[in-house]
Each structure stands twice: as C-alpha cells, then as structure tokens.
Specification:
With 100 residues, the protein is mostly helical. 96% of the residues lie in helices and 0% in strands. The chain contains 2 helices and no strands. α1 runs antiparallel to α2. Keywords: Membrane, Transmembrane, Transmembrane helix.
C-alpha cells in the first residue's frame, strides 16, 4: 500500500509536468481507484468481522441460557430427591422411636 502511495505521488508529479488535461484526469482517476477499492474492502472486512462477533455472542448467550435452564432443572430434581430422603429418614426415625 505504501509503495502504491509513492507510485501515485511520482505519477502525479510526472503527469503535472505533461499537463495534458485528458491525461491528467485519466491518470488521477486510475491512480485513485485502487485506494477507493481498498477502503471499501476494508469496510466490508470490518463489517463481516462485526457480524461474526455478534453471531458468536448470540450463540454463546443461547448456549448459556440453555445451560442455565438445565442446571435449574437438575437442581430442582436434586432438591426433590433430598426432600424425599429427608422424609424417609424421618419415617425411619419415627418408626424406631415407636418401637423403643
């Protein structure tokens, strides 16, 4: 890119010396077009990378949400099991107390 910039400056100096109107306009247009193309390309690359980042964030958020809901379901099942075990232990203790 830097080489193209130096070439552009060199060509503009030489074209200005020739000072033929049509040649100056054509040459300036031909020398500026690569810069315009490069800028547009960079903007597209930046936009694509932003879209990919947004998509990856959305996928991660969805995965986190699913994981959170699964964790809550599993925790609820564990609490139910613990309540059931506590009830069974209470029943065993009560039966044991009645026997004694």
């Amino acid at each position: 890119m830097f080489g193209l910039f130096l070439f552009t400056i060199f060509m503009l100096i030489n074209i200005h010396k020739a000072s033929q109107s049509w040649l100056v306009i054509f040459s300036i247009s031909a020398l500026i077009i690569p810069y315009i193309v490069a800028i547009v390309h960079l903007k597209n690359v930046i936009n694509i990378s932003k879209v990919k980042q947004d998509q990856s964030r959305a996928v991660k958020a969805k995965a986190d949400s699913q994981l959170q809901s699964e964790l809550e379901e599993n925790w609820k099942e564990i609490e139910d099991e613990l309540d059931s075990l506590a009830g069974s232990i209470d029943d065993i203790i009560n039966d044991n107390d009645k026997k004694n």
